[in-house]
Model the fold of this input.
Amino acid sequence: MEGRPGGDVELDGLAEALAEALEGGADLAAGSRRRLFAALVRLSAERQRVGDGPPLPDGAVPIEDVALTAAEMLRASSVTSFELAALFNV
Done:
């Protein structure tokens, strides 16, 4: 069985199992959660640069969760309002 270009079938299976466990109520230690999230954010950004589609399917995450996470990510990255406006060409 082949994965998509640049993908790995074994990693995809591991990702599916991890997602199911977390959706079922499993938890990760804070350090593990942060490291995994950072890796996923970097991968998602890389895929966005090549036009690989949106990072989330429509309705996959409640808007409140998206807004809270985005705000905390911007805060943790020390993004200024000027930088944010420049990013979105506002």
Summary: DSSP finds four helices and no strands in the chain.
